[in-house]
Amino acid sequence: SKMIGILTSGGDSPGLNAAIRGVGKALLGRYGMKVIGFRDGFRGMMENRTQLLDSAALSGILTLGGTILGTSRDKPYAMPVAGKLMDMTGVIVENYRKHHLDALVCLGGGGTQKNAYHLMKQGLNVITLPKTIDNDVVLTDVSFGYDTALGIATEAVDRLHSTAHSHHRILVLELMGNKAGWLALGAGIAGGADVILIPEIPYDVKQVAAAIMRRSHSGQGFSIVAMAEGAVSREDAAKQAEGGKGKDKKKKEQKQQALERIADSKPGNSLQLARQLEELTGLESRLTILGYLQRGGTPSAGDRLLATRLGTACADLINKGEFGVMVAARGDGVKAVPLKDVVGKRKTVPLDHDWVKSARSVHTCFGD
Ligand code: F6P
């Protein structure tokens, strides 16, 4: 019988186990194939660390957060080995052959799609599913993980209202989302944030302060700011555009800054924004960073449904021998889209998106 490999790669995300279960159960039960998992993404595939995914292993995992297979951000062509980045593509291809795999299923976000495409070009039968709380994978309506994270982030906005309202404070909430604003925008609208700052709309801190002061003068002594981790001020956006020429240098600097941030557990622009708002408005201002709470725990019903239907559709495509594609959600259906059309792209929030228009209509300030 046919043998299929599965791995999960990139940041963990609610719904990964539901997807593993969907793919696995359909392959086993419907098509009589065998399934093995590789541990910790492409790293485990390189190190040949596997786990049999039989029906016992696939049972009881639907509601679990994280991924039973483990994950990593390692890339086949730039794998940290003995302190150096090495191209381990050859070893990965060898292990695919060693297990006599008929296909490899890769579950992940933008980076994973790229890695899977790379392996496809080496001749492997690759098929992928879109997973990310950032919702920034192109050509799919939505990725699993987003709905759960959106729910948690919205609950955080709800709960912050208590303190904001009672203490008449400005509360800034830093949300994830990488370079896309979907999470902050969605949670900001659903939770009724007064200000929403996203990477797609560079903000002017004075505009934000003015909006907060307008609220204050009309009797609302508190404000909630939902801020995407990737949101930038107009000045920084202009600097970034200028530095675009010396891109490599900029990249190095950003990497260094990110490392320093981790070392000091310091936030990105949100701490600075909270301080500036306190200065400009004279209102007490505080910062909350939601962090990994957004990715943890049991998936929402919506994500379980999405991951299951994409997973079982993936098994159908494997059975038909359709590879080199990502299984995308489109309306009520599922569509196989060529990986080459997915890689190297990011779905950001269009400035004229319905959500943005709607938020503006309820007087949400975007800082522009
Ligand atoms: O892609 C998911 C995500 O949580 C982003 O929102 C965030 O920028 C990033 O991963 C954090 O990465 P790490 O897991 O390496 O801390």
UniProtKB/TrEMBL annotation:
InterPro entries: ATP_PFK, ATP_PFK_prok-type, Phosphofructokinase_dom, Phosphofructokinase_III, PKF_sf. It is an enzyme of class 2 (transferase). The active site is at D134. Residues 236-265 are annotated as: Disordered. Its EC number is 2.7.1.11. Residues 4-318 form the Phosphofructokinase domain. Keywords: ATP-binding, Cytoplasm, Glycolysis, Kinase, Magnesium, Metal-binding, Nucleotide-binding, Transferase. Residues 236-246 have a biased composition (Basic and acidic residues). The keyword Nucleotide-binding applies. Its cofactor is Mg(2+). Its main location: cytoplasm. It catalyses: beta-D-fructose 6-phosphate + ATP = beta-D-fructose 1,6-bisphosphate + ADP + H(+). The record marks G111 as: Important for substrate specificity. Substrate binds at T132, I133, D134, R169, E229, R286, Y292, L293, Q294, R295. ATP binds at G11, R73, D74. One of its GO terms (biological process) is fructose 1,6-bisphosphate metabolic process. Coiled coil: none annotated. One of its GO terms (cellular component) is 6-phosphofructokinase complex. Pathway: Carbohydrate degradation; glycolysis; D-glyceraldehyde 3-phosphate and glycerone phosphate from D-glucose: step 3/4. It is found in: Cytoplasm. GO terms for molecular function: 6-phosphofructokinase activity; AMP binding; ATP binding; diphosphate-fructose-6-phosphate 1-phosphotransferase activity; fructose-6-phosphate binding; identical protein binding; metal ion binding; monosaccharide binding. Homodimer or homotetramer. Catalyzes the phosphorylation of D-fructose 6-phosphate to fructose 1,6-bisphosphate by ATP, the first committing step of glycolysis. PANTHER family: ATP-DEPENDENT 6-PHOSPHOFRUCTOKINASE 3 (PTHR13697:SF52), PHOSPHOFRUCTOKINASE (PTHR13697). Belongs to the phosphofructokinase type A (PFKA) family. Mixed-substrate PFK group III subfamily. This is ATP-dependent 6-phosphofructokinase.
